[in-house]
Amino acid sequence: MPTLDSYDAIPYEGIPITETYVEQLAAIGRLFGLATADPRACRVLELGCAEGGNLIPMAFYLPDCRFVGLDLSVRQIEAGQRLIDALGLPNVTLLHRDVAAGAEDLGQFDYVIAHGLFSWVPADTRAALLALVRRCLAPHGLAYVSWNALPGWHTRAMMRAMLLQYTRTEQAPRARLQAAHDFLTRFGPALVEEAGELAPLLKAEVEYLRRAPPSYVYHEYLAEVNEPMLFADFVQLVHAHGLEYVADAELYTLLPHTLGEAGQDVVADLDDRLARIQAMDFLRARRFHRSLLTHVETPMQAAPDLEALRGLAFHADLSSEEEIDLAEASPQVFATASGARYSVRHPLAKAALMLLATAYPDSLAYSELHAAAAALVAEYGTAEAAQEEPALARVLLDLIAYNVVRPAVNARRFDASPGDRPCAHGLARAQLALGQDCLASVRHTAVQLDAEGRRLLALCDGTRDLAALTAAMEPLLPQEYTAAAREACARMLWTFARHGLLSPAGQTSRG
User: Fold this and answer.
1) What contacts 24+ positions apart, CB below 8 Å, involve 15-18?
2) Is 0.85 surpassed by the pTM of this model?
3) Residue 169 lies in a domain
4) Does 55 have pLDDT greater than 60?
5) Does 442 reside within a domain?
6) Domains identified in the chain, total number
């Protein structure tokens, strides 16, 4: 079977893609009336899995699920298999296979993932991909397909056209990538001066690409195929293959009230859901979609259902620098792990976010979360506010729409304590051994560690307590930090535990 030389030469960096996490996919499906499979025991297929950076962590953390990945790059499949072998994972298989060759022999899957594939393959392969999704997706299953969208991608198409022309004489992938960076260095400053009204757009593109991983620059801007499309055309295409658009993984893009006042006026008279989404794409100059699909025969709801929301569980990696006021409907700012800041006012919502932040990475069932939040508001606020449950449901839906709060089908508890002698679990140790600085958390997020963080985690082998870890780290720290080394190590250990990078207390391995 042929292999993709460009992906062999410049492999995509494998990181967990949080929006593809099966717990979240299952929960979003439930919001739209789908009877999605229990994510604790399901079958998952990833098309274009690369080296398994997205699939293998899910297999590690969800041992009762079954995962299969397909990719045309033999080098990346071999790299992923080495990690699988090192971990001894029995529930994940990576196959060197073209999606156009089909996958009927693999059976049906509750969830199918195709991230970074649809827009980057020829039209006949796109058709084969959708046909494969249709055949392999179980009844009531849910597929995730990401793709580049118009009109917003037009702005990036300008830079792509320039880079393709400038690098046209280079054949080898690495040489083409170097030529692209040469262009950014040589032309970048002059573009800002000479491009007139387009200068701000091009300046932002140049700065963005200079920071981007090499694999992204090559496969997004220098690949032979990159075909963005309008939402209406995407929906028409998936319908032709027996699939129905359900929602996007980022739900805010579907909700008119997330637009400004002028935008809401534009879409107010659009009763057709799909026409409204296309109009919102125009207003936002949408560049990218993370679309969720199911079979056309599968009953579903056109909008997220608050009653279904009340049957879910939730988790959120949040913090707040302000004292939380449960007595008044005053704005309270919460920050996500990425630094994004969101303000909520209702006392019940503020109490709920405080509880989720404290419990993370645990997820709390809605009934438990509501009861605990209402008790706090009744004690520290007012009895009237404590009884306004519908307000909590509405705020939670908005926060889910922006991925501030993540939904799950099941409430789950984790041992988020470092223990007396912290021990990195098997996946973390294997990723460190491979030289990776971006590790996969128990909630399928990317945990970026600096050199000191990687060194400390590597020392967590179950034999050292905090004093021993501090003594081992002190010589590696800048002199100004050595006096506070113990405190710094303790904080970092709790960070490891909060992200689920350590074995449960008392165990020396995991997986």
Assistant:
1) 15/53, 15/54, 15/438, 15/440, 15/446, 16/53, 16/54, 16/57, 16/58, 16/440, 16/441, 16/444, 16/445, 16/446, 17/54, 17/115, 17/444, 18/403, 18/406, 18/443, 18/444, 18/445, 18/446
2) yes
3) yes
4) yes
5) yes
6) 4
